[in-house]
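Limitations
The structure tokens in this dataset are predictions for the assembled complex, not deposited experimental models. Users should treat interface geometry with appropriate caution, especially where small molecules or nucleic acid strands are included. An illustrative entry is reproduced here so readers can see what is and is not provided.
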Amino acid sequence: MASQALQGIKVLDLTHYIAGPYCTKLLADFGADVIKIERPTGDPARNMAPFYHDERNVDNSLIFFYLNTSKQGMTLDLKTPKGQEIFKKLVSECDAVVENYSPRVMPSLGFNFDSLKKINPSLVMISISNFGQTGPYRDYKATDIVEYALGGLMYIFGAYAREPLKHAYNQAQFKAGTNAASAALIALFHSRKTAQGQHVDLSIQESISTALRDVTSNFTYTGAVRRRQPNHSGDLTRLREVSDGYILPNPGMSAGLDWNKVVEFLESSSLDDDKFRTGTARLENAEELGSILDDLFSTKSKLDMFYAAHEQRFIYGVIDSPPEVLDNPQNQYRNRFVELEHPSGGLITFPGAPFKMSKTPWDGLKPPPRLGEHNKSVLSERLGYTDDTVKELISSGVI
Amino acid sequence: MASPLEGLRVVEMGQLIAIPAAMKMMADMGAQVIRLESCRRLESYRTDSLFQNDVTGDFWNKGANFYEQNRNKLGITLDLNHPTGLALLRQLISVSDIFAENFTPRVIKNFQLEYSDLQKLNPDIIMVSSTGYGFDGPWANFGATGPATEGASGLAYSTGYKNGPPVMSEIPYTDYTGAEHTIFAIMAALIHRQTTGDGQFIDVSQTETSTATIPEFLMDYSANKRVSPRNGNEDPSISPQGCYPCMGDDRWIVISITNDEEWASLCIELNNSELTSDTRFSTNEGRMKHKQDIDDLIGRETLQWDNQELMKVLQTAGVPAGAVLDGQELLFNEHLKSRNFYEIVPHHPTTGMPPLPYAGRPWQFSTTPQVEPKAAPIMGEHNKSIFIDLLGYDESILEEWESEGIIGYGPTSPISVRRPSLEEQVRQGRLQRFEPDFLSQVSKFHQDRP
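Predicted assembly:
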């Protein structure tokens, strides 16, 4: 069997909800040995909708399932002396600790980086937080929408005359989780060479602000402040409704646009007119152009038009719904979705490998741990605790 | 202390964002990234969003988008359609650790730059291809933009105002999602190579990486056959959550209440008796049912406030809230400033551009920091150091190559994009405003750094 890329790397995972768990999921799915430490009541994400077959219980959250594949799970009360002792033992023999508590928590438990470094000098510690470990917003509270607002993506997102908008679901969290996984590997790459560990401070706000292209440079280059764009009806790249959904036309780069090719492709004689032939002319006659295009597109079918466009190398795009994403021929060809048996029986279908690696394939995927599933094996196999000690720990509520 | 990726060499054949943004992060963290450009096929980001909108002179060295994605890289020019150009690229690949590209597979196959070709030059090399839809399969050779992969991944379908069409972000958002996963993928391959000595081929699809970030949506369908409707800024399980108007022109605040305690604090701070006294609103269940009424009441109150001031009041009271920052406010944001998030990057003297602040990274490393920032290369800036110092050619050959069009220092047919004046763009609604004294604001920002 081919080895996995991160085989042999030991990660202690103190994360909950989304950003931290996505980071450690990436590590685990690509072969790292990840022990997820949950508080005795469990990761709150276990209570997050949607649920498998809409049945709400601690093993049925679909997002928890997705975010915690391939991990081992144990419960540990880090507020008890015994729990702290076990945690320190695990720290001494792991390569990385990942946590996403608010910045006050780890120091208050006595686990700031300096104290963990004393236990394990080559330790890499990744701290993911809303606004970073320092600065005036350090203790601000945030959900995904707050990160969109303060990260700078929201102001330019949505309709000109309406309130700013965010993406659906939890993009800021996933973005930060991905960045945290990269940062962890960069730090591990270094510590494996030099035995020198370090602390990485990863901010969710800055994860958004890093990826805005020219939002601040519009200002530093010209003094311009961008805003949500007006949806000019004549814009050639505007999302258009077709008979069976939505399509994204893209006739090519504006500077090199050949209007005759556009007319030919759309097979419309009313577009074959000088009032649309140049960029300036199209702006002047935007309303008329827009209504012609609306009519024209409304009769087309999405995929027919998409394939026809790509034959001409017009890079059209499709807007796909969940059933369409699952059935998409490209996704089918590339096995984009995988199945695993759910703990309560039945197969569960979810997005598989986010990218493909030729030598270290993404396989050996395991379902997420049930609450405390690996308590015994971690304590006895990793730390050499006897059965009696394990029983004691259970009865005292430490695990 | 050295940066963590020092000693690694990357050859980048990238364009726009998906690969360039990822390799910028690698360069920031110490890798030597050699970026290949063509003088015949000018990268469009070089001609776009120009400093002071100046389309004269060597404008191709003044594009904001280019500088945003290519910091800390070395830049060379090569015509790959010339056998010598392609041979030079192969020679570079043979002495590098990573080859990163984001063209369509058709282009890569035409130049015989597939992984199996590269392995003949350098058996342990790591190659990453980032494409819209993946390196193989029926859609492999379809070009894609950010919005197209945002659409194909499923992300766009679920985003938008209630009862409205899908809405896309106004930046190539999914290019970045691809880039972020690409860094992780390369690092995983490097760690595997640390252990085994083996390189490999990484196939990143920008659509697939985005699909990886919306499991809630796709799994609700696969498990429950449910397709959630577009719901604006609402959250499916907590209320209220929304974006509310504040005092001023196009000023907004977001508020997101996750429990009853935060709700109680919000009511106190907004000091609205209808919100406080209405028992329908006292539980999350009730607030979910009466979202519209609550949003109307909150919106009436927030209009009386400055958004940043209200954010501070609410956050001090423990309520998750955030001012919706525009580009200028983001740049000057006190929190990001205290963390030195924007780094001041000097530009090549021939550009006449002053040092400018650019977004840094989402991470801060305690021991091995990023490199001292250098601006993206002007065209052909490092031809000499790469071909002469690294590959060992005699300096006299550069002129010969230049006369044959194999290398160059500017585009063969420069075409700039002329934009309407800023006043006109404000009138068209494409800009919120512009501030003619921006350069003095920016230079003051440099001076004020902690």
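Some entries come with short summary sentences. For this one: Chain B has a mean pLDDT of 96.
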